Every structure is written in C-alpha cells, then in structure tokens.
Amino acid sequence: MLVAPLAAMADPVPGQQEAAFEEAVELWLADAEADALPMLSDLAQEGNAAAQLLLALIDKSPALQGPWLSQLPRAERVELMRMPGGLSGRSWMHEAAEQSPLAGLWLRLWAADAPAALALDFAAEGEARAAREALIYAAKREAGGMAALVDHPDYPPGLRFLAWQDGAAIDGEDLAPGDPQRRMMGLELATDEVADWLSTAPEALSVRRFCDNRCAASARSCTMAAAQAMGAHSILLTFGSPSERLIDAARFAASARGQSALLRRVALSTDARGRRHLLADAEATDPCFAVHLQEAIERYRAPLITSPLPPATD
Fold first, then answer.
1. Quick one: pLDDT band at residue 6, thresholds 50, 70, 90?
2. Is residue 147 within 8 Å of 140, Cβ to Cβ?
3. Distance CA 80, CA 58 (A)
4. CA angle, residues 112, 118, 122, in degrees to nearest 5
5. Whole-number Å distance between alpha carbons of 129 and 158
C-alpha cells in the first residue's frame, strides 16, 4: 500500500493555498527576487502565515538570498523582510506562530535550549531537512538526547552517527560502504564509493539535481565536487528547501533559486581569501562545477553587496 508523504498529509500552512502566495513562490523559485519578495512581503503584512514563515526563513539564511536582495540598502531590506519592531525589525516567524504550529517549531529551534527531540516534531510535520538541522544544532550545543531517539521511526537515518556519538549501541556495519557516516562512527569508508552514496542518498538530492541540470556530461564527478566544496558533511545534510511543507524538496532542488542557493552556500563555506583554493579544488574534481561556482561568486562581488543585516529582534 502506498503511503502519502508526511508533508502531503499535514494541514496546509494558513495562506499556503492562496493563488497570490503560489504565484510569489513560483517567481522566487525562478530566481525573480525583485518580483517575488515584495509580493511575499505584502502577503505577510496582510496576515498570510505561509508568506510570513517563508520570508522569515529566507531572512535567516544568507544562502537563500540572491544578489538583488543583498544589494538593497539596509533600511529597505529591513522593511521588505521583517515586521516592525526594535532597531532592526522582528522576524515574521513570531507573527506566523500565532496561526501555524509549524512556525512555532522554528522559534523553538532558534532558542538556545532547543532539545534534540524537536527533530521528531519537525519530522512529524513533513520537514525532513529541518529535522536533521534540529539534531545537528543539538549536537553542536552538546545537548545530548540522540541516543534515546534513534530507534524512533521518524529519526533521520542519515544522522545515526550522532546517536552513536551520544552513546547508542550502533555498529553501523549495515551502512553503505560510501556513506560518510561510517567515518564518523570509526568505521572504514570506501572513498571510491562515496559517489555511489551521493547518487541515491536523500540528503544529496540538491547536488544531484544541480549536476543533472548544469553538468549532465560529468554529473558523477560534479556531485563529488559539490559535496566536497560544501566544506562539511553537516552542511550537505542541512541544505535544501527552506520549508518542505511550503516547497517540496524535489521542486526546490530542480529550481533556479535552489541551484543558485547551492552555489551560494558553497561560496559561503569559506571567506574571500579561501575561495581561490575552493575553486582550484573544484576544478580538479569537476571543471564544469567550477565554472558555475566562479560565475556565482562573481554575481555577489562588491560593490554590489552591502553589509549583511544584523539579527532581527526576538
């Protein structure tokens, strides 16, 4: 029997089914920020919780912000992306949480004391990427709790290594030879089979779609180059649709915005001085990927880019 994905079974976020919201999402995915973001901002001010939630997530993640948004003067960006309040505005997530329990989960994730168990709440809402993010944040804070969760059916299988590091009795021998979790669990990793893992792993969907679209003739080496260029396995695990309830993971990965965001996330993995080495390493693994990465870096070069916005008032 086929089972619908969790995201499909969950209730829509209020405002998600409005035609204007879907039009704005389509424009944003087409990388038309100048058209999409003002529409989302207007909807957010009108009380559309889905628009509020999406704006808050874009505002929180630099990789999701294209050159048009980045070059806006600070005051205009604050007015566009945030609700009034404080010196730098307040995140729309607070307003969205008044209507949407899903928005409330993000507010809990952004709190300093978010528990590992929050990942299961995200998974139950159909937010697989956010579930992985919640576990990784908990691990970085040394919050613990992963070992007690690993046997739950909603625990992300790609993060079993966190439960092992938290003391769970997991041998990991059933992991694919090229699964990077093996290295993190003290097991031998078949480095020549990592590309095989990337070719099927749900966590690597974005790099696969990018390479299939932009570097089809060298897709296998391109996925390796993209994954390596992210700089950390945790970045690969947490990159993807800002909210899978609002934008399906596959839809985001195939979109112009999703693919631009991947390149931007790679560029942000190092500072400006380190990008020469980043590009050289990418060139050595896959020249096609390196060309696209260079083009993406050029899109964000000064003097186009203004200083980043300070954090929104909580």
1. very low
2. no
3. 11
4. 125
5. 11
